[in-house]
Amino acid sequence: MWKNAGLFSLALLFALIAEAASAQSSGFKLCESTYALCTTAACTPVPGEKDTVSCACDVKTGYSAGQEDCQQVTDTDQGKQIRSRYFPVTSYAVCNNDRDWAWCLDKPCIIDPDDPTKASCTCSTVKDQGPYVIVTDTMTDTTCTTGVISSATVKGIDQITDFLKTTTELKPFPIKVLNSQN
Predict the structure, then answer these.
(1) Does this model's pTM top 0.90?
(2) Are 69 and 173 in contact (CB under 8 A)?
(3) How far is CA 63 from CA 66, 148, 169, in A?
(4) According to the lineage, what is the superkingdom (predicted)?
(5) Per residue in 82-95, pLDDT tens?
(6) What is the tens place of the pLDDT at every residue in 92-131?
(7) Which whole-number Å values give the CA distances from 85 to 9, 36, 68, 107, 173, in the listed order?
(8) How far apart are CA 115 and CA 34, in angstroms?
């Protein structure tokens, strides 16, 4: 009996080590800081800068995930700078077209001096990366065709969600997919 318990404990230890190694190799990092949340941000082109948009994001404080090391609020010539990071979502629509969308994860953001709950983030536009998501509670005929929205690929959301499942501080929510791939 004790031999089986010892083998079980050893197997459990190896499983925990493998899970921790998998989380570290995912390339994501969890931190507690002030960050910009851009998951529903509308974006506008930056004049004179190809493939660059400015996205209107919310300033949050707490746990978040990203691929870069955690950073605190930094004073710059443009104002107080933070980084855009990920916080778990509850629902999204899947889009699969050639529309541009904004990649904001870990991008620099300047806190609005007149409204410290808002930040302007400089993000890259991308397209043709495979199915991508629009974070929303409701699917409409224009969800996948209107404006440049901060987004991520379905694969990217799955990867960061899997990473968050390995953390104790920030667990993902069950995600409702509002549609099948378009």
Answers:
(1) no
(2) no
(3) 10, 26, 7
(4) Bacteria
(5) 999 999 999 999 99
(6) 999 998 899 999 999 999 999 999 999 999 999 999 999 9
(7) 37, 6, 9, 8, 16
(8) 15
